[in-house]
Amino acid sequence: MKLISRFQAASLGTAELYGLRKEAFIAFVAAPRGSQKQRNALATMRTIEDELATRAPGL
User: 25 — phi, psi (to 5°)?
Assistant: First the structure.
């Protein structure tokens, strides 16, 4: 899984982010425990979650 930066995440649409989050999750589960691939997938999921949280409508 390629590491996604905040800048890259901000430039993507919401639907694209949800799709990438799914891909990152699958990559995380498939990677060997503690590997760099697993850490990259986890970091990507966190970046995507942070970006999606900024787009959530406020109350």
Answer: -65, -45
Intra-chain end-to-end CA distance of the chain, in Å: 34
Boundaries of every domain in the chain? 6-55
Instruction: Spell out the residues 6+ positions from residue 28 whose beta carbon is closer than 8 angstroms to its own.
Output: 1, 38, 41, 42, 45
The token pair at 2 is 């390629």
Average pLDDT over residues 13-20: 96
Q: Report yes or no on whether pTM surpasses 0.90.
A: no
Phi, psi of 10 (to 5 degrees): -65, -25
